[in-house]
Amino acid sequence: MTAAQLAAFVLTLSAAFIVPGPAMLLALRNTLTGGLGAGIATGAGLALVAAGWTAAALAGLGALFVLVPWAFAAMKLAGALYLLWIAVQIWRDAGSPLGQGPSDGRRRWSRAFGSGLLVNLANPKSVLFSAAVLVVIFPAGLGFGDATFVVAAHFLLEILGYTLLALILSRPAARAAYLGAKLWIDRTAGAVLGALGLRLLLSR
């Protein structure tokens, strides 16, 4: 593995990171509703699974999905249903005030971390994307040390990106703006997540 290949990998992941999707949408909303800690916890959950998909791609899971299409279909169905469930929850609670109890901070962060894990687990296409990126950028048969470094680099990039996002959005001005338009922001977020769930459910 060369420095040029690693740089290409980082640039590709950075471009994919800023494209709006369920992971980014969840990180945005959890930070605005739960604050900095919830935003970072969400990012940690998202980053852990994103790096896990890269590890799975390196281990050949993408090829397994091609050989055993029903396994991919089952994971895709479960993921789509989970995204639709989240969409319904967000839409339903759009008009509800935010909880203010300071004592539930750890529980809120735990829920945020879990939601990050589940949202990225809900998108099995990520392993196919990772496999495609790895095939294009890196030579076949990466050694264990190089593969571990690639997975670690992916995790570090994701966690840094979501932490920066949380730092920006947890500022009082951003939270105040969210609270002023909570109903419509949450309804929009629910509609977008629902559309993404349907797209995942209906895509081939």
TrEMBL record:
Top-rank lineage group of the source organism: Bacteria
GO MF terms, alphabetically ordered: amino acid transmembrane transporter activity
Membrane topology reported for the UniProt record: Multi-pass membrane protein
Subcellular location: Cell membrane
Gene Ontology CC terms, in alphabetical order: plasma membrane
Transmembrane segments: 6-28, 40-64, 70-91, 112-141, 147-169, 181-202
Keywords carried by this UniProt record: Cell membrane, Membrane, Transmembrane, Transmembrane helix
Chief subcellular location: membrane
Keyword field contains Cell membrane: yes
Keyword presence, rRNA-binding: no
Official protein name in the record: Lysine transporter LysE
Organism for this UniProt entry: Pararhodobacter aggregans
